[in-house]
Amino acid sequence: MRIIPLSEGSFTIDHTKEFVPFDLHKDDLQQRPLGSLLVEIQPFVIETGTDVILIDAGLGFCNEDNVLQLHENLVRHHIDPLSITKVMMSHLHKDHAGGLLKYDKQLQRYFPAFPQAVHYINRHEMDFALQPGNASYKPELLKTLNNAVAVVLLEDQGVLDGYIHYEVTAAHSPHHMVFTFKKDNQLVFFGGDDAPQLQQMKSRFVAKYDFDGKKAMQLRSAWWEAGQKEHWTFLFYHDIKTPMITL
Q1: pLDDT digits (tens, 9 = 90+) for 66-97
Q2: What span, in angstroms and rounded, lies between the C-alpha atoms of 139 and 211?
Q3: pLDDT, position 227
Q4: Structural domains of the chain ordered from first start
Q5: Deepest of 52, 82, 118, 177, by most Cβ within 10 A of its Cβ?
Q6: Under a CB-based contact definition with an 8 Å cutoff, are residues 7 and 42 in contact?
Q7: Model-level pTM greater than 0.90?
Q8: Sign of torsion, CA 203 136 146 237?
C-alpha cells in the first residue's frame, strides 16, 4: 500500500472552535488565546492497487484561485480527485469533514468534492452531526452530502472488502471510528482524534476535550503496545512533525 499525507498546514484552535493558520517559523503560540492547541490538519490517501482511499477530508479551505486545497494536494501527488473510490470518515467534526464538499461562489452552492467515491460514515455519527447547535459540526454541509453522493452508513464494527476493518470507540467523540487496513503483509492504523499525535501514544495523557478522555488514553496505550509487537504503521492526523511512523 502506498500512503501519502496530505497536509493542509498548522493551525491553532481554542474554545471558539475556529482554526487559525499558524506559521511555525514566524508565529508565537504564546500570543494566541490561553489554552490554544497547535495542530496539523492532515488527511491521508492510501493506494491499494484496487482502491484509492481518502481518510478524512480536512478543513475544506481553498487557495486564491478557489481550488480546494485537498484537490491541489492530491494533484501534486499525481492523483486525480475523481479517482478516489472510497472516503473513510473517522468522525464529522468540521476539521475532518470540511473538504467533503466545495462551495461554488458563482453558483452559491456546495458540490461534492469526490463525486465518484463511496463515503463511509457511522450511522449514529451522521444522526448526531445533523443536529443543530454544535459548533464542531456543519449540518448544512452534511445534508448536501447525503443528497449528492453515495453514502454508506456503517454500524459499530465490521470489515469492508476483506481488508478494511472499522470499529466505533466512542472516545474522542460519542461515535468516533478508527480504521485498520490489512493488505500485502502491511497493517496500517488510523486512529483519527483518538490517536492524533505521536507523543500522545507514548504518554498517559487524558485530554479534556475528549468525550471519554480516560478511554482514549487506555486505547492509545493498547494500540501502541500492539503496534510495537506487530509492526503497525500509524497515521497521525494532527501531528505537526510526524505524519506517520512504522514500528
Answers
A1: 899 999 999 999 999 999 999 999 999 999 99
A2: 20
A3: 97
A4: 2-246 (3.60.15.10)
A5: 177
A6: yes
A7: yes
A8: negative
